[in-house]
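Translate structure to sequence.
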């Protein structure tokens, strides 16, 4: 699966938001991110992959691009 650079940039923000919600007690605003990602055509499966990745506190040690590549999601 391929995503665009613009979609990847949004996913980086979404990952950071999810990570902070899960690990730093930041107030969740998932509605905002769902709207942004949906309107940019990011598949729901990719959104879910990013959210699940952020649940793992150790995920911060790798670039998001690396996590996505492991799931065969590439930036085109």
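Result:
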């Amino acid at each position: 699966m391929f995503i665009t650079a613009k979609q990847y940039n949004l996913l980086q923000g979404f990952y950071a938001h999810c990570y902070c919600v899960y690990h730093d007690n930041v107030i969740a605003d998932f509605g905002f991110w769902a709207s942004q990602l949906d309107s940019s055509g990011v598949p729901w499966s990719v959104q879910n992959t990013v959210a699940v990745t952020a649940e793992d506190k150790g995920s911060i040690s790798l670039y998001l691009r690396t996590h996505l590549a492991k799931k065969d999601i590439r930036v085109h």
